[in-house]
Amino acid sequence: EVPAWRYAMVNYPHPLLQAGLTILDTPGLNALGAEPELTLSVIPNAHAVMYLLATDTGVTRSDLEIWQKHVHRHANYHVAVLNKIDMLWDELKSDSEVQASIERQAEETARVLKLPRSRVFAVSAQKALAATIRGDAALRVRSGIESLEYLLAHQVIPARRDMLYHAVSREVAALLDESRVDLAARLKRSSDELIQLIQLSGKNRELIEQTRANLQQEKDSYDATAEQFRVTRKMLEGQGAHLLSNVSEDTLDAILKAARETMEGSWTTRGLTGGIRQLSEQMGTRFQQATQLADNMLDALDQAYMRFHRQHRLPKMQVPRLDLGAYRNRLETLMRETEAFCKDPANLLLEKRFMIRRFYAGLAEEARNAFKLARAEAERWLRIALDPIMTRIREHKQYLDTRLASLQRILENMGTLHSRMAQIKQEIGDLRNDKAELARIAAQLAA
Hints:
Layout (H helix, E strand, L loop, with lengths): L14 H4 L18 H9 L2 E7 L6 H11 L5 E7 L11 H19 L6 E3 L2 H10 L2 H7 L1 H56 L4 H42 L2 H16 L4 H44 L12 H19 L1 H4 L3 H61 L3 H31 L1
Parallel strand pairs: 1-2, 2-3
């Protein structure tokens, strides 16, 4: 997908790299037109962007245009770095005068780029390197590099770590909630059975037989509801397959192929942008159809869940709606970026087929990533929607079967009643220990 000669991967032992920092050094601004993937992929996906400027020139008109068009709208964290401050070092001026000159340039850069002054750094990379090689601590401090390294070590890397931590925490929290609900249901079932056995203790055989008959009737009713849900589940699996087909790779390939043919058959900018709009509409329609299918499935699931809750006292379950908005927004942003790319006079000077080929490669790759992530999200949602209820159905069926078998053994040998009560008490104790462990994990996660 990317020619090998365009990238060089360099790694060496350094605390910042070992802490998880990954640096991508993009080519100069003049490469943005010829390499659209920079604006389509690299800059939007970066956690932080360092915008390198020259101290002697400050923010030029082209710098500002690139900043406003391609950089400022993307990434959560922006930093401007004024390099080559050694060009302002003047032996005829005092250190305070030199520093005041550098500070004026930094404040002007912050004003033009609309950044806080704290996000503008003035450094001399060349002097920092020389100081490191020579072991010259004073020159290293004067180069300004330490403040930039401090930013990377104490703000950028922790921010990345926090982002990953919160993402994992959300996943674990969802699992904890599901486990809590499951434990609560199992505790209630065991407690209800224990109460029933205590009430039956000392009763006659006929009463136990009647209890077993009532339980058998409840199980038969439950099996009928479960069988009805299996039919619903089979229908939902078919809808799920249709949902996934809307965000499949084959679907995207067909859309991209048609869009490319439209663009290659056009000789005007209007035709090129028309092809892009058509591409955007078709991809957006697929996401919308997938979301609508998911909403229809959710309505059917809600009805099934309520039936189990009302008729068989299973805990209420609520599945979140499938939200593909983030991926749809990403595609819309891609389309806006690409339309601007095609309208840019500098890019229109490129040979048309070359431009289409380069743009198409970048856009297709980004669209493929968006579809891939959307499909993964849809698959995860389908598991969340269908798997838990099937697990609950199986567990409740197993619970009813166990109770029936227990009552049957009691009928055959009344002496087993007390041993079964002791067994259930042990199970309740184990479940309470599990509940306490879940609470401990949740508290640790929240700390």
